[in-house]
Amino acid sequence: MKDELNNILQQNEAWRQGLKQLETENVSFKTRLADILATDFTKGQLENLEFFQTRFLKMDDQITLLRHEIRECQELLDQLLQTNDVLTRTIDLHKGLQEKIFSLHENFYRLQTDFNSYLSDSFPEISIKHI
Question: In angstroms, how far apart are the furthest CA atoms of the chain?
Fold first, then answer.
């Protein structure tokens, strides 16, 4: 039980750090988008740019929600260190978080690939500048 608790604590911290990294990269995407919006672009491209802006904002929401859930898990872990009665709940919460983290990473990398492909096709001079 102690080993499982230590593994959960370590993974919880790794997730917090991973979310920080994804948040930083998402900010970078929004900055690149702002750079594009400061240039000349066609009306047809505006629809795609708005589409990515919406996806970036949704990614921010997902990251914020997961950060909150990880904080809740950490609070339960802290309680567990004092009492053993929340172990099952903590392990269940942790497993759910594990699935959500995996899903968030999949969504993020799909967004990253889509956005980089779009930039490469539509704004090659901008996408090269930020690589």
Answer: 61
